Each structure stands twice: as structure tokens, then as C-alpha cells.
């Protein structure tokens, strides 16, 4: 009887604790969202914390009409698409070759890839390399270095090794080449792992800004993330200008903080929208990695 | 299989089989060599850059045109107070990170006790979300709650009259270490728990049934079955954590949260290298720090792996 009561107590306490945790990790996002659609003037003295104060799209209208945000948005979007495609192609082709015993220097190559997970070259030698390759201030510095990713390669290779070999052998007997087999048999059978890696990669690319900070000063290739950091850390002159402008043009003024909240929402939105569907892939991927790693 | 490939199929005599094997090798190489070349290019070629630690390298000039300076940069590193402070901060932040390392495991145990599957999924999904957003967003989330000017916390506490004037935790250097550790916990604990839940799901259910037959309560089950089931994962992550001892909280986190008020406590090796190297153009000095750091990190990783192999019989390398 006593035991049952203490059990019950634990269950209730556990659920309360976990609910608090959920509140701590999700409320901040909700807070930013409701303030981004609140009327800027009404959240100046006290921000909204349960429901939006009024409702307006004015922040978002400002953001979408500001030219310096459109470019970075497309740079980030494009890296997520192009970078992910190249990473998938490169990592899976190398992984496929590495599963074949006929490949010369197979073990050396595999070790060469794995070892990159443990070495860290350091910032300056990498910077010099990018400079020598004339990749500084180019878009390619975002997508070329990540084409072969050791962690992704391990995930993909592990998956390839589980595929039934019979299909490949049958195709080979019929004269199909390695590339044909890879493209027409192996890749279609590997959709789950390719989806996993694609998601990891796309989220990574979308969130990435350090390569922008290190290697790219040209504002043409500015990423959305770094632009947001500039807005937060600087006294946001641009945003203040926009705010001043909007006061003249419309009855509702836009403030720097309400604009920042709007941009933040836009940066999170793509991840938030796909996240619930993708979580199972993440978990699957990390399990595969853990088993192998 | 297309009609074309079927038409091409022929029975191959022995010498042809040899040729086919050669062709197979050639196409496998054609498929892998370009990408392996990229691995070499982006991971091993820059190691040549380590040579500049013995020169006063300045970009644009060939290495041979510089005079060798011996161990100068390493000596500077060992005696430079600002570097030593960065080293201290790095070690403190890493140590605090290791202290909270069991937190995701505890969360996984608690989640495992939740009977309602939808609620469990709900907690998992929402608590691991911060792991997938960039550090810049994380910084803005904390900024919007804790900043002096327009932070929610200060404006609420002021309104309630609990505090007389706003406090700025983001600029409080005595709280900086603990605050950054908590920020890291906020971002990572949910995702960490998911990794441990994956480990838990691999445990044979019969073990739990057997324990129940023997009269074990939930606490005993957790202690004797769930915890040991998660230990291998914990050991792997802990060993990797030791190998990353010289990373502190990581460049992205510290760079976004750093400001002049907390620099004394938050500057870590990574940010130090960035400011000295790319900002002040002390390429050789910054590289020397990077080289020392890499060598020590590898040594720590190997050592931690060795200890873990002795203690638990598990090797991760």
C-alpha cells in the first residue's frame, strides 16, 4: 500500500518535472513568436508573454521589403540544397566503393577518412588552404569542404553493407557497370539512410555561419545566420533606420527588437516545420552511428 | 533491368573474366579517388601549414622567404597571461561540462518511467528541439530573456517590484562559467536523452521481466538494468569528452555569448586563436596554439580510451 502511494507520488512528480522541462525548452520560442506579431509600440514597455498584444504583420512586411535580408536568405537556402546534394553524392559514392573488396587500397582509404574525425588541423592552416585554393570570399567554401563527411560516410557504408548482395551480382552478370548498379539498385534501396543524412546535412548547412565568419567577407555571400548575429550584437543601425523609416511611412512603428524577433522566427521556421517529421530519422541515424562508432 | 543491359549480357570466358575484373577495379577507383582526393585536400594538406609555427609567417610571402624563429611562438604561448587565462577558462568550462554529463542519462531514465507514450514523445520532441537550432538563435533566445534593455525577466521583475534595478546576467563575469554551462545543458539535454533512450530500447525486455519476478521495484530495475544498459554509451561520450577537453564550451557558443564584460571568464582557446590569428594576423602564433592543442587532444583521447579499456573493456578508437 505504502509502496503504491510512493509510486504514485513518483509518477506525478516525474510528469510535473518533465512538463517544466518542456516549458523551459519551448516557451522561449513561443515568446519570440507572439512578440513578433504583436504591435511593436505595445510591447515597448512590457513584452507580451501569454498572448500577442494586438496582431500585425508589420514586422514581417518590413523584413521582406528590406533588401539586405533577401540575399542572405537565398544564400542559406542554396547552401542547404546544393551542399546537401553534393554531400549525399560524394559521401555515398566513396562509401559504396569502400564496401567493395575489389577496390585497391580500400583499408587505407577507409582509415584515412575515419582518422579525420579525430584530427583537428586548426583554424589558420585551414584559412591558408582556402586562400591558396582561391576559395576565400566564394560560395564554394560553404559546400566543397563538406562533400565527404566521415560521420555520414560511416552511416551510409554501414547501411550499404546490409543490402542483399544478390541483386547487385545479378545485375553485374547482365553486364551492368558499377555506376549503373550504384545508381539504379543501391541508391533506390537506401532511401532511409540517404534521407537521414540529407536532413542532418541540410539542417547543418542552414545553421552554419562559422565558415562565413572565417572565410567570407563579401556581403554577396553573407548567410542569414551571421546577418542575424550582426543585428543582435551591433546596435542594429540598419534596423533602427528601418524603424525610423517605417514611423514616417505608417502609423505603426517598428522597433529593432520586434524586427529581430521576426527575423529569428523566420530563421527557425524551416527547421521547426520539418522537425516533427524528421525526428525519427535523426534517432535512427544516431543509433546506427552509435552502434558503429 | 533495362532491355539494353539484358542485350549486353553475354557468357564470359575466363580471360574475359580477368578483363572484367580489371574493369571493375578501374570503375571502383574512378568512383572513389576523386572523393578521397577531396578528403586528402581538405583534411591532410592543411597539416603542411603546421610548418609555419617555426616562422613569423605573413600571408603573401613564401615560407622560404621567412627566417626560422625556433620555438618562439610556443614559448610565448607558455608565458602569455592572456593565453593562460584562455586555457584556464577552457578547462573550467570543459570540466563543468563533464560534471553535467550524466544529466541526459537521468532524463532518459525519467522518460523511460513515463507510461503514456504520446506524452513521452511530446517531451522528447520539444526538449530536443534546441539541439537543432544554431547558436546564434540560442544566443538570441537568452538575450531576449536576460538582457537589460528589453529582456523579459528584468522587465517582469521590475514590474513586480522584486528588484530595484535590472541585473545583467549576460555581462556578469562571476556567473559566466555556470551560466554558460546551463545554456549548454538547455540546448543539449533533450537530444542527449534521446541517444540514451536509443540505448535503453536495445535492452532485452526479458531482463526486466526476470527482475520483476524476483520482486525488484522500479528503482532497482533502473539501477541494475537500465543504468548498466546505458553505460557503454556514456563511456563512449565521456571518452570523447575528455578528448575535447581543450574545446571548452565550443567556439560557436562562446563567440556568440562573449562581450567585453565577461571576456576574462569566457575567452577560450578557440576564440583566442580566432582573435589572434584572423583578427590580429598573428598567423604563426595562432597556429602554434592550434598545433599544441591538437597534439594534447589526441594524447588525451588515446589516454582516456586506454583507461576506459582497462576499466570497462571497451575501446572506442
Automatic annotation (TrEMBL), chain A:
Gene3D superfamilies: MetI-like. It is found in: Cell membrane. GO terms for cellular component: plasma membrane. The chain crosses the membrane at residues 12-34, 73-96, 108-128, 140-160, 181-203, 258-278. InterPro entries: MetI-like, MetI-like_sf. It is a multi-pass membrane protein. Its main location: membrane. The keyword Cell membrane applies. Keywords: Cell membrane, Membrane, Transmembrane, Transmembrane helix, Transport. Residues 73-260 form the ABC transmembrane type-1 domain. One of its GO terms (biological process) is transmembrane transport. PANTHER family: ABC TRANSPORTER PERMEASE PROTEIN MG189-RELATED-RELATED, POLYGALACTURONAN_RHAMNOGALACTURONAN TRANSPORT SYSTEM PERMEASE PROTEIN YTCP. This is Carbohydrate ABC transporter permease. It comes from Cohnella herbarum.
UniProtKB/TrEMBL annotation, chain B:
It is a multi-pass membrane protein. It holds the Pfam family BPD_transp_1. It is found in: Cell membrane. Residues 87-304 form the ABC transmembrane type-1 domain. InterPro entries: MetI-like, MetI-like_sf, UgpAE/MalFG_permease. One of its GO terms (biological process) is transmembrane transport. One of its GO terms (cellular component) is plasma membrane. CDD domains: TM_PBP2. The chain crosses the membrane at residues 28-55, 91-111, 132-148, 177-201, 283-307. PROSITE patterns: ABC_TM1. Keywords: Cell membrane, Membrane, Transmembrane, Transmembrane helix, Transport. Belongs to the binding-protein-dependent transport system permease family. This is Sugar ABC transporter permease. The lineage of its organism: Bacteria, Bacillati, Bacillota, Bacilli, Bacillales.
Amino acid at each position: 500500500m505504502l509502496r503504491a502511494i510512493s509510486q504514485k507520488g513518483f509518477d506525478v512528480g516525474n510528469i510535473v518535472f518533465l512538463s517544466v522541462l518542456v516549458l523551459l525548452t519551448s516557451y522561449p520560442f513561443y515568446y519570440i513568436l507572439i512578440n513578433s506579431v504583436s504591435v511593436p509600440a505595445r510591447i515597448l514597455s512590457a513584452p507580451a508573454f501569454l498572448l500577442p498584444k494586438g496582431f500585425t504583420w508589420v514586422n514581417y512586411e518590413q523584413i521582406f521589403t528590406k533588401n539586405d535580408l533577401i540575399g542572405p536568405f537565398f544564400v542559406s537556402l542554396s547552401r542547404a540544397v546544393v551542399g546537401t546534394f553534393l554531400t549525399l553524392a560524394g559521401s555515398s559514392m566513396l562509401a559504396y566503393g569502400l564496401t567493395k573488396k575489389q577496390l585497391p587500397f580500400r583499408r587505407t582509404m577507409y582509415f584515412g577518412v575515419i582518422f579525420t574525425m579525430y584530427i583537428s588541423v586548426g583554424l589558420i592552416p585551414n584559412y591558408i588552404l582556402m586562400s591558396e585554393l582561391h576559395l576565400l570570399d566564394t560560395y564554394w567554401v560553404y559546400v566543397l569542404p563538406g562533400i565527404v563527411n566521415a560521420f555520414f560516410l560511416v552511416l551510409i557504408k554501414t547501411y550499404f553493407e546490409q543490402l542483399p548482395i544478390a541483386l547487385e551480382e545479378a545485375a553485374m552478370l547482365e553486364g551492368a557497370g558499377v555506376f549503373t548498379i550504384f545508381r539504379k539498385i543501391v541508391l533506390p534501396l537506401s532511401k532511409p539512410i540517404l534521407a537521414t543524412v540529407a536532413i542532418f546535412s541540410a539542417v547543418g548547412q542552414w545553421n552554419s555561419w562559422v565558415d562565413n565568419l572565417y572565410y567570407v567577407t563579401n556581403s554577396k555571400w553573407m548567410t542569414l545566420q551571421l546577418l542575424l548575429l550582426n543585428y543582435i550584437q551591433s546596435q542594429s543601425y540598419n534596423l533602427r533606420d528601418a524603424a525610423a523609416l517605417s514611423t514616417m511611412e505608417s502609423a505603426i512603428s517598428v522597433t529593432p527588437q520586434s524586427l529581430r524577433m521576426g527575423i529569428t522566427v523566420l530563421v527557425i521556421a524551416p527547421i521547426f516545420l520539418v522537425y516533427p517529421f524528421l525526428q525519427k530519422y535523426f534517432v535512427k541515424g544516431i543509433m546506427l552511428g552509435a552502434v558503429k562508432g | 533491368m533495362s532491355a539494353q543491359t539484358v542485350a549486353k549480357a553475354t557468357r564470359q570466358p575466363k580471360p574475359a573474366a580477368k578483363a572484367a575484373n580489371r574493369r571493375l577495379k578501374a570503375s571502383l577507383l574512378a568512383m572513389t579517388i576523386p572523393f578521397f582526393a577531396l578528403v586528402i585536400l581538405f583534411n591532410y594538406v592543411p597539416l603542411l601549414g603546421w610548418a609555419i609555427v617555426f616562422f613569423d609567417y605573413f600571408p603573401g610571402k613564401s615560407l622560404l622567404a621567412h627566417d626560422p624563429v625556433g620555438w618562439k611562438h610556443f614559448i610565448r604561448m607558455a608565458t602569455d597571461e592572456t593565453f593562460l587565462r584562455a586555457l584556464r577558462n577552457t578547462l573550467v568550462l570543459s570540466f563543468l561540462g563533464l560534471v553535467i554529463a550524466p544529466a541526459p542519462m537521468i532524463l532518459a531514465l525519467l522518460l523511460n518511467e513515463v507510461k503514456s507514450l504520446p506524452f513521452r514523445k511530446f517531451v522528447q520532441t520539444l526538449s530536443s528541439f534546441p539541439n537543432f537550432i544554431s547558436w546564434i538563435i540560442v544566443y538570441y533566445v537568452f538575450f531576449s530573456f536576460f538582457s537589460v534593455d528589453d529582456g523579459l525577466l528584468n522587465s517582469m521583475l521590475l514590474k513586480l517590484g522584486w528588484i530595484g534595478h535590472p541585473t545583467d546576467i549576460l555581462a556578469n563575469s562571476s556567473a559566466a562559467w555556470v551560466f554558460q554551462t546551463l545554456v549548454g545543458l538547455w540546448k543539449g539535454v533533450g537530444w542527449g536523452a534521446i541517444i540514451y533512450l536509443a540505448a535503453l530500447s536495445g535492452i532485452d525486455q526479458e531482463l526486466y521481466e526476470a527482475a520483476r519476478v524476483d520482486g525488484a521495484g522500479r528503482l532497482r530495475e533502473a539501477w541494475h538494468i537500465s543504468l548498466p544498459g546505458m553505460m557503454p554509451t556514456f563511456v563512449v561520450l565521456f571518452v570523447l569528452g575528455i578528448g575535447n577537453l581543450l574545446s571548452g564550451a565550443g567556439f560557436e557558443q562562446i563567440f556568440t555569448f562573449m562581450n567585453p564584460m565577461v571576456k576574462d571568464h569566457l575567452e577560450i582557446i578557440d576564440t583566442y586563436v580566432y582573435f589572434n590569428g584572423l583578427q590580429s594576423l598573428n598567423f604563426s602564433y595562432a597556429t602554434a596554439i592550434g598545433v599544441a592543442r591538437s597534439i594534447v587532444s589526441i594524447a588525451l583521447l588515446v589516454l582516456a580510451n586506454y583507461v576506459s579499456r582497462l576499466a570497462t573493456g571497451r575501446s572506442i578508437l
